[in-house]
Fold:
Amino acid sequence: LTSFSTSFIVDLDPPELLLITPPQNSFVTDPYSILEISLTDAISDVDTASLVIDVDGNVYTISSPEIEFSSGILKFTPSAPYQNRSIVTWSVEVAELAGNIAEKLIANFAVFSDGPNISNVTPGPNSYVNDRRHHILFTIEQGSSPIDLSTFQMTINSENIFPGDPGLSLSPTGGVFVPDDDFPDIIQINIS
Structure:
């Protein structure tokens, strides 16, 4: 009689899925934003053959060219841009080698690829004023994404002016700059 011995491991816990990026209910400006999810299992490995990702009703598997899985990080890179001003809903389902199925991860994010615009700058291009402390007025057109005024920057003749600087008042719809020193003869303004 030939003897035989073996061992095995009991794994009762499913793999864990953790959203990395983009955060749940976030806003993105890149229409090719990459989804990143951490897939881990403490005992047995993730069964990549069981992986199913659904992005707005389109189903992808580990063999899809949009999918990359390495060192426990799953990346989905869209082959076409997400539609502007849309909500992208996606989900991930996966099991591990012992057959335990992870709780389905469902998330969404909003795509706003057209940012705010600056318009109606007064005084206008190539205009004349008779005041060295003339106020500079402008309108902010929101576009489709929420405005983060902390990213506002104005440059007047190479001097950077940021939110909170003296003389600058901002709102989500526009702003005004009141100089505390006299302007030189020629003024160059950039606003972003």
About this structure: The chain has a mean pLDDT of 88. Residues 35 and 76 are 5 Å apart (CA to CA). The longest strand covers residues 86-96. The chain has no helices and 16 strands.
